[in-house]
Design brief:
The chain is of the alpha/beta class. The protein has 2 domains: about 300 residues, Arginase, Chain A, CATH 3.40.800; about 70 residues, no CATH class. It is built from 13 helices and 14 strands.
Length: about 375
Amino acid sequence: MEFDFLAPVDTEILDFISGLSSQQLGSKIVLHTEKQFPDVNKIKIALIGVLENRGSNISISEVNLIAARKELYGLYPGNWDASIADLGDILAGNTVEDTYFALRKVASALIKKKIIPIIIGGSQDLTYALYRAYDDLEQMVNLVAIDSKFDFGKESEEVSATSYLTKIIIDEPNNLFNYCNIGYQTYYNSQEEIDLIEKLFFDGYRLGEVSNNISISEPVFRDADLVSLDLNSVKSADSGNFVSFSPNGFNGKEICSLSRYAGISDKVSLFGIFNHNNSVQESAIIAQIIWYFIEGFHYRSNEYPFGSRENYLKYIVPLEEEELVFYKSNKTDRWWIEIPFISNGNNKLKRNTLLPCSYEEYLAACNQELPERWWKAQRKNII
């Protein structure tokens, strides 16, 4: 059984929860203890710690999530009705590959049961194991990384927190349809890496772009399956990370907004937070990021791809060589653009697909500007 990989929640946490009021989050969740394991058929969201840090280049070897859990369980929930469980921790295996295997199996089993795992790492190379969890589901994966770096490495290099993306791109079976980075800082990434993102028709949004208009990231999350958040993308003044100091990055409010967008996306089925340094200071931002993700989850509207297209207004925009088809939801006023199925091509997507977009992209198309998001998706679909 996959869940045999999970160790129970630390008794220190149980003692802490027993002292909380009945209104606090810790009193409202189900816990994996020595005596019982939560009934996975009754939960919607599962918290899992992964105590694996060997992929990190920082000297802190042991991952300790006690402070983060205490901080989270001491918060008060919103008007939530989804049942949440803390399934405990995946301990570091004899090798990093052992940990990847355990995490992949656990994440895959939960996704199949329509449960959303929230993973608290360890190092960010665990994203590779989460990506591999989709292998059993036979679907293309859209990965979004909230990160100051792209995390490319040499082909021959061991997988690490700073090189896992290369492994995801070159490893078979290749199920990655799109990768999008939110918040990269140019001076941390070589020009070759930035060019490579363009060549692969992937997306990258600079920190300044997103900070100036946070809502540009909403369509990105709406199309994501897996979201990987590197805590180094938050500036140290707001995160409390003074081990690997970063003067620039998202502030606390912005990172929580991004987390809420991830939670509100009908498609996101896996969320991971990585690269913290076990400090008590950082536990506050980790707890609030998770809180906002769960808050967003409660505002999901189950629109495309789950609903029918009857509740949408269809807009057809004729361009010189193309006819673009947009859909607008009557329920939430969100926009999508159609990627047509090319009958004689080698399509990665097996049917007409709707791609999330913004109202601004619709207005640009009305001015005869082809949306870059649509063009990249078209290219990726037929390559």
